[in-house]
Amino acid sequence: MPQPLALHVRVPASSANLGPGFDSVGLALGLWDDYDVVVGDGAGLRIEVSGESADEVPLDETHLVVRSMAHAAARLGVALPTDLHLVARNAIPHGRGLGSSAAAITAGVVVAQAICAFEAWEHLPLAERVPVDLDVATDLVTELEGHPDNASASVRGGMTLSWTRDVEERGTGLAERAEVIGTITGTVSVPVHDDLRVVALVPQTQLATHTARAVLPPQVDHRAAALNAGRSALLVEAMSRRPDLLLPATRDWLHQEFRRPAFAASMRLVDALRAEGHAALISGAGPSVLVLTTRDRADRVVVPVGTGGDAAFRAWRRLPLAIPTTGVNVTRA
């Protein structure tokens, strides 16, 4: 690897679950974090952060992008240079259920991949896209994130369906390495209907994912699981071919009601919007609310008067978002 090596990484936000698709369905959102990364410049570790939560993230080796690079490099068997200059421009709100951690982890993972495979792209001109193995990236991001929904959407873009492969389904991973990488998580992309639109309603209050997951019961009722399975299957049809079915397709029995105490104001907003016929749901672990709608109804998605709850939840940002068809992008800088 030459000294130094510069890369630009762009990663989209994402929403997980989309109602019934708990820990398995992801959707990329047109809100992007941008990173400039220079490795091996001889100047030690330097981190600069601007944008969302810029004053809340660490500026040392515990920064999530740097930690993710180190983890991925170790799994791929490559030594990272100790000199690293990271410039992060954050547009994805933190702690709001919009995949900010998955985006940061994805950035770190693909930088490590690019360094590992440098000989395959070292002759590319500036601004050309650097190829990365999306299967390997999804597995490595999932290892760190804990579940593949946000991970797969940030890596691949669009709508993704993910599952953990049975042992007999798994291949040998990267043939030259002992670890099984790129074969544990299965992911497929689902084409999204051209008329589909997304509106995110983002509160001021943050909520940690581990807090939202802590209230989930260890077991669920068999009837609830069966109901959820039917709606999860319907969700694929609604997103790809029948947007008129979005409201019933986003009904959930597995997680949102259990989490209501953790984001009561968000659930009141979901209730109010669904009563108006909008396919509203909690985005990921919350507390943001996502509305899946169509071109002709998107302008009608607003926070109804009286659903703000306490003062911390009264100011909601309304973000109309595209659904990018591609995920993480790495270019030579």
Secondary-structure map:
Layout: E1 5-17, E2 21-39, E3 45-51, H1 64-76, E4 84-90, H2 100-116, H3 118-121, H4 134-145, H5 148-156, E5 159-164, E6 185-190, E7 196-202, H6 209-214, H7 222-240, H8 246-249, H9 264-275, E8 279-282, E9 289-294, E10 317-321, E11 329-332
Parallel strand pairs: 3-4
Antiparallel strand pairs: 1-2, 1-11, 2-4, 2-5, 5-6, 7-9, 7-10, 8-9
Helix pairs in contact: 1-2, 2-4, 2-5, 4-5
Can you walk through the features of this model?
This protein has helices at residues 64-76, 100-116, 118-121, 134-145, 148-156, 209-214, 222-240, 246-249, 264-275, and strands spanning 5-17, 21-39, 45-51, 84-90, 159-164, 185-190, 196-202, 279-282, 289-294, 317-321, 329-332. By secondary structure, the chain is of the alpha+beta class. Helix 4 (134-145) runs antiparallel to helix 5. The longest helix is centred in the C-terminal third of the chain and has 19 residues, at 222-240. The chain is globular and about 60 Å long. The model is unreliable at 173-178 (pLDDT under 50).
Helix content: 25-40%
For the biggest sheet, the summary is: 7 strands, mixed
* Overall SS class: alpha+beta
Share of β-strand residues? 25-35%
* Overall mean pLDDT: 90
Name some characteristics of this structure:
333 residues, alpha+beta, 7-stranded mixed β-sheet, 4-stranded antiparallel β-sheet, 9 helices, 11 strands, 25% strand, globular
